[in-house]
Structure formats: C-alpha cells, structure tokens
Design brief:
The chain has 263 residues and is mainly α. It has one domain (25-260): P1 Nuclease. The protein is built from twelve helices and two strands. It has helices spanning 2-22, 31-43, 47-56, 65-68, 71-74, 97-100, 107-119, 125-143, 170-182, 186-194, 207-218, 232-260, and strands spanning 160-163, 166-169. It has a two-stranded antiparallel ribbon with strand order 1-2. A hairpin with a 2-residue loop joins β1 and β2. α2 (31-43) crosses α8 (125-143). The chain is globular, with a radius of gyration of 19 Å. The protein starts with a helix and ends with a helix. 44% of the residues are buried.
C-alpha cells in the first residue's frame, strides 16, 4: 500500500514537471511583482478613479489593485493563456496584429478589450469587475520583457540556467529571481521605486507600444546571459531595467485608469 502511494506521488510529480515544461509561457512577474505594480498604480490614482475602482472591487476579498493583481494567473487555463503575452520574430519588434496577435489572442488585444469593457457604461457590474482585474494583471504582464519575447524559446522558458545555486530558466529569473535579489519585501520595493518615479516618462498609453518596448529589451545585447550561471554582474546590468519596467507598469496603469474614470 505504501509503495503504491509513493509511486503515485512520483507519477504526479513527474506529470506536474512535464506540464510546467510544456506551458508556452508561465507567469509574468511573480505574484510579488504584480502586487508591486498594483500598489504603485493605487498610490497614484486620481480621487475619481479611486472611488470608481473601490465601487467595482467592493465585493473582492482584498478590494485593492494589489489585491486583484494576480487574479488572471489564478484562473488561467489553455484558453486564456495566450492573452498574457505576445511573441515577435527575432529582429523585428514592429507590432503587426495579423502576424503577432492572430485572432486577437495576445496581451495587446487583451488590454484593449478590457479597456473597451470599462469604457462601455452598458456593461454589467460583473463584466466591469472582471475587466478591471484583467487590466491590472495584463498591464503588468506586457511590461515584463519576456512577455514580448520570442516564440522559439517560449519567452525564455526553455533557456535553462542556474540562479543562486538552483535550477531555473530565463523567464523565471525575470519573473521572480531578479526582484527577490533586488528587494524581497514588496512594500519596501514600492517605496524605493517611488523615489525614482520623478525621472520616469510615461510615453504613450498604448499597449502595442508597451509590447514593442519589451521586445526591444529582449533584443538588447547581453539580455540572454552568455553564462548559464548568471551572477551579480547580470543583476547589476539589468536591475535598472527591472525597476523602470515595474515603475512604468504601475504609473501607466494609474494614468490609464484616470482616463477611464475621469469623474
């Protein structure tokens, strides 16, 4: 009996590993990263946007932008998975919807769709609640560089490496590893980024532009580490980019919400 239980546990572990390896794109920013984006946005909301969001999220267990920031990952499945990312051909970061977002199934179209729902005053309260939760998450997603990455390596998921002595991959490194190495406490991270916000220019409030920015980062020299055991030098080289992308995601989200809820 005990042997069968052990064998069953081993089978389940192997299945979980296989499913993880088969997933085309896992997460964008880890849960802490998405909460950071949500909190940055919440701290910059206009009074009108703050009131509208409080009403929409009133029935949520944690009715804040940070509190709902990970919902889209929690309900993610095969159908919704492609809405979290976009793939560009190597060397071409110019967004072409028929090529890069067939059938409207990419993060750019997902953001635009959520915006449309929130703009439409005829939508139901539940539709608006879902759209807001999606928007918070997908804006975070599109600012993680590897969610504007390459289909060939599934957004860095197949680029295996060692990080701090443990097996990882490039996507996970950007999701979680770099953020934890910079500042493991999410609230402290938000406070540290607030001191850098004055030097950040928002640029266009357009999802396609944000995706193209991510693609350009992935295309930059040395983004793919030459050493499969990247260390402090890689962190030093890319910490500023992590900071800027998190800050931009939160600040742009707040600015976008201000246009959606002008009061």
């Amino acid at each position: 009996m005990k042997r069968r239980a052990v064998a069953r546990a081993l089978q389940l572990a192997l299945l979980a590993t296989a499913l993880a390896l088969a997933s085309p794109q896992l997460l964008a920013w880890g849960p802490e990263g998405h909460r950071i984006v949500g909190q940055i946005a919440a701290d910059r909301l206009t009074p009108a946007a703050r009131a509208a969001i409080a009403a929409i999220l009133a029935d949520e267990p944690e009715p804040t932008l940070a509190g709902v920031a990970n919902w889209a990952d929690e309900v993610r499945d095969e159908r919704t998975g492609p809405l979290h990312y976009i793939n560009f051909p190597i060397g071409d970061c110019h967004y072409q919807p028929p090529r890069d977002c067939p059938g409207g199934r990419c993060v750019v179209a997902a953001i635009d769709s959520a915006v449309s729902v929130l703009k439409n005053r005829k939508t139901t309260a539940e539709q608006r609640r879902v759209a807001l939760k999606q928007l918070v998450h997908f804006v975070g997603d599109v600012h993680q560089p590897l969610h504007g990455g390459r289909a060939e390596d599934r957004g860095g998921n197949t680029v295996q490496l060692q990080w701090r002595g443990e097996g990882s991959n490039l996507h996970k490194l950007w999701d979680v590893g770099l953020i934890e190495a910079i500042e493991p406490d999410g609230q402290h991270y938000v406070e540290r980024l607030a001191s850098k916000a004055s030097g950040v220019e928002l640029g266009p409030l357009a999802a396609d532009a944000w995706a193209m920015e991510s693609c350009l980062i992935v295309s930059a020299p040395a983004f793919y580490p030459a050493d499969r055991e990247p260390g402090p030098d890689y962190l030093t080289a890319w910490q500023g980019t992590v900071d800027v992308r998190l800050n931009l995601a939160g600040m742009r989200l707040a600015a976008l919400l201000a246009t959606l809820f002008p009061g």
